[in-house]
C-alpha cells in the first residue's frame, strides 16, 4: 500500500507543465469579449443620440420630451440585441464546425 501512495505522490510532485494549446482559445474568447464590450457601450449610446436628433426630432418633428422617451426605447432594444448576439456567439464558440455528414 505504501508503493501506491508513493507512486501517486511522485506524479504530482512537480508543477504541471504549461501547455500552450489553450492559448488560442483564450485569445479568441478575450477578443470576442472585448468586441461585445465595445459594442455594448457604443451602439446604444450612438443610437440614442442619432435617433433622437435625426429621426424623432428631425424627421418626425416630435417634441424634445417625446423624443427622449422613444430614443431610450431604441437604446434599450439595442442593448438586448447585443446581449442576445453575445450569448449566441459565446454558446457556439467552442463547438467544432463540421461540414460533412457524421455516421
Short description:
The chain is mainly alpha-helical and 103 residues long. The chain contains 3 helices and no strands.
**Number of DSSP helical runs:** 3
| Mean pLDDT metric | 83
How does the major sheet shape up? none
Q: Please identify the structural class as seen in this structure.
A: mainly alpha
What is the gyration radius calculated from CA atoms? 26 Å
Subcellular location: Endoplasmic reticulum membrane; Endoplasmic reticulum-Golgi intermediate compartment membrane; Cytoplasmic vesicle, COPII-coated vesicle membrane
Function: Required for the assembly of the V0 complex of the vacuolar ATPase (V-ATPase) in the endoplasmic reticulum.
Organism: Xiphophorus maculatus
Membrane topology: Multi-pass membrane protein
Mind explaining what this structure looks like?
The chain has 103 residues and is an all-alpha fold. It has a domain of 53 residues. Helix content is 74%, strand content 0%. It contains 3 helices and no strands. The two termini are 46 Å apart. Belongs to the VMA21 family. Its main location: endoplasmic reticulum. It is found in: Endoplasmic reticulum membrane; Endoplasmic reticulum-Golgi intermediate compartment membrane; Cytoplasmic vesicle, COPII-coated vesicle membrane.
Amino acid at each position: 500500500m505504501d508503493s501506491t501512495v508513493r507512486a501517486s505522490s511522485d506524479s504530482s510532485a512537480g508543477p504541471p507543465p504549461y501547455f500552450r494549446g489553450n492559448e488560442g482559445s483564450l485569445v479568441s474568447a478575450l477578443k470576442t469579449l472585448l468586441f461585445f464590450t465595445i459594442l455594448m457601450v457604443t451602439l446604444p449610446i450612438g443610437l440614442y443620440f442619432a435617433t433622437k436628433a435625426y429621426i424623432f426630432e428631425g424627421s418626425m418633428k416630435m417634441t424634445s420630451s417625446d423624443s427622449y422617451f422613444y430614443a431610450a426605447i431604441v437604446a434599450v432594444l439595442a442593448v438586448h440585441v447585443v446581449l442576445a448576439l453575445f450569448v449566441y456567439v459565446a454558446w457556439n464558440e467552442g463547438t467544432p464546425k463540421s461540414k460533412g455528414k457524421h455516421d
